[in-house]
Amino acid sequence: MALIVHKYGGTSMGSTERIRNVARRVAKWHRAGHQMVVVPSAMSGETNRLLALAKELAPDKPGKSHGRELDALAATGEQASSALLAIALQAEGMDAVSYSGWQVPIKTNDAYTKARIESIDDARIRADLDAGKVVIVTGFQGVDPQGNITTLGRGGSDTSAVAVAAAIKAAECLIYTDVDGVYTTDPRVVPEARRLERVSFEEMLEMASMGSKVLQIRSVEFAGKYKVPLRVLSSFTPWDIDLNEEASSGTLITFEESEEMEQAVVSGIAFNRDEAKISVLGVPDKPGIAFQILGSVADANIEVDVIIQNLSKEGKTDFSFTVHRNDFQKTMDLLKSKVVPALGASDVVGDAKICKVSIVGIGMRSHVGVASRMFKSLSDEGINIQMISTSEIKTSVVIDEKYMELAVRALHREFDLDQPTDTLAA
Ligand code: ADP
Ligand code: ASP
Ligand code: MG
């Protein structure tokens, strides 16, 4: 008997029929003797629907100014799906109870729409598990120190599940989704992508942070910090398949790096079209400019990603960086109104139609020339690279958004990630 956390994403919870299948699958695990905690997302489309309603009412002021209410609104999606799952489990003859974030409580900071989990009180969950119940905990939400409802950022139910698994010291956290594991790249963009049996924790961390939305980055960070065994698998297999077969399917995120894993130069390709590029032009080239520009951006709680500073010409330089597209206008406004005049820079220009494509692999530590192979492959396709950033196990480029799919496919081929064509038909 083990303590197991299951997480089900929006598509997996997308209709009453699917919720019934989730209930049956969970009941199967419970009847096999496991203690079960389940973390569901909102039914697919629900979070978008709710946020669109808010935007209709306040088209010009998205984000921070309505943060508290946006979170109270969006959190209802998970509250509904959790209650529905509890009802479905009860209809299957199970003893089940659902809790919202604040009822557990899952305590977070007060950064609305992107709150961070600070602690989870496991007492209520444990008492119910000991009483033989299936416990359902809403994904995506928590409560701040003032008792306000918060949400954890898009895709945040993954993080809820891993954080709950860490808090109750679960034996494993299984992330059920609409693909049957982690692939070499998004299989919806590259049909030739291959499922990985195992992916190292470090690679998963890079892939998630570079845009592979199969797992929210913070869920991988939590898994790493608390050593939570994590597996990504499909919720679309028949609910009554053999439990052992199910338990070993999908992709295991592993802390052990085998030799075989290191032999692959590149394990995966991630891409992200959620970024925008901003350039501050004609900045006087003197000590402190990076701090003056990026310090004020950070003070506004805006995260900066890729950064480059050009060589200076006649004492002036251009300074470029990327931010999340949602923060684009806010960053432009901030720079125009405060930073540009204070620095004596000549202008600020932005481009929201860019994307970032990254190759990731622990094999990059021991193979040389990987980045240049990447650049050559892109150049052969006539794709211009605007920015580059690297770390030990990844290289990212910022390119025009219209070349994204072309770039991902070319790199997938270049690094021998395409599956053999004869297996593609399935
Ligand atoms: P859920 O609602 O279950 O959380 P998401 O839509 O958030 O599901 O994440 C699953 C999706 O992630 C897949 O449908 C797939 O399109 C996308 N994805 C992106 N990169 C990858 C990858 N490397 N491997 C698998 N899926 C990926
Ligand atoms: N429902 C939330 C979202 O759509 C959280 C999640 O699905 O993980 O982002
Ligand atoms: Mg998700």
Task: Describe how the helices and strands are arranged.
Blueprint: E1 3-8, H1 16-31, E2 35-40, H2 46-57, H3 67-91, E3 96-99, E4 106-108, E5 117-120, H4 123-130, E6 134-137, E7 141-143, E8 149-151, H5 157-167, E9 172-177, E10 198-200, H6 201-209, H7 217-226, E11 230-234, H8 243-247, E12 251-254, H9 259-263, E13 268-272, E14 275-284, H10 289-299, E15 304-309, E16 316-324, H11 328-343, E17 347-351, E18 354-360, H12 370-380, E19 387-391, E20 394-400, H13 404-414
Parallel strand pairs: 1-2, 1-9, 2-6, 3-6, 9-11, 10-12
Antiparallel strand pairs: 4-5, 7-8, 11-12, 13-18, 14-16, 14-17, 15-16, 18-20, 19-20
Explain what the structure shows.
With 426 residues, the protein is α/β, with parallel strands linked by helices. It folds into two domains: 257 residues, Acetylglutamate kinase-like (Carbamate kinase, 3-Layer(aba) Sandwich), CATH 3.40.1160; 147 residues, VC0802-like. It is built from 13 helices and 20 strands. An eight-stranded mixed beta sheet has the order 3-6-2-1-9-11-12-10, sandwiched between helices. α2 packs antiparallel against α3 and α10 runs antiparallel to α11. The model has no long low-confidence stretch (mean pLDDT 94).
